[in-house]
Amino acid sequence: MQSSPATDFGTARRTQLFDQLLTLFLAEGFAQLTLDDIAARLRCSKSTLYTLAGSKDDLVVAATVHFFRGATAHVESRVGAVDGARARITAYLTAVGQALDAASARFMADLGAFPPAREVYETNTAIAAQRVQDLIAEGVAAGEFRDVHAAFAGELAATMMVGIQQGRVRAATGLDDAAAYRELAAILTGGIDA
Length: 194
Hints:
By secondary structure, the chain is mainly alpha-helical. It is built from ten helices and no strands. The radius of gyration is 19 Å and the shape is elongated. It comes from Mycolicibacterium chitae. Residues 34-53 bind DNA.
């Protein structure tokens, strides 16, 4: 079944609005913005925003989901472009850091303080940790890594990923998120090398 041109335009417009909304939120956070502020900044009506979500809270959650969906696509495209477990883990963690570079400290603080959006973030962190665990298991099976407990290594990665995303690693080390993810990749893959 093909969509009509009107449906295509509607979908394209919704995607464009979500992209603009996400750019705004990533740069400035969302807690201090009202729906009126958001509508003015996006140059649309509040009723247009209500076509995206039923409330500001729902809009924040939808934008957060949109962010992680885009980040996941970016990360997986980077992983798919390389061969070997070490390169894939390095590409994965580096791409996660790059995706998070777009998020301001204000956005991350607002994300942490708003339970529905924080839940989206925590779910995605758990998925990312599982992905790292799977990549480690693939490397062990291929003989590229020594026989390590993949779940433990995945949990180690997840703990560090949360620390990076919450700003604790930056505060303790001065490393920005992308550099912290590169260090995590180096330590993780070096520590499990065959």
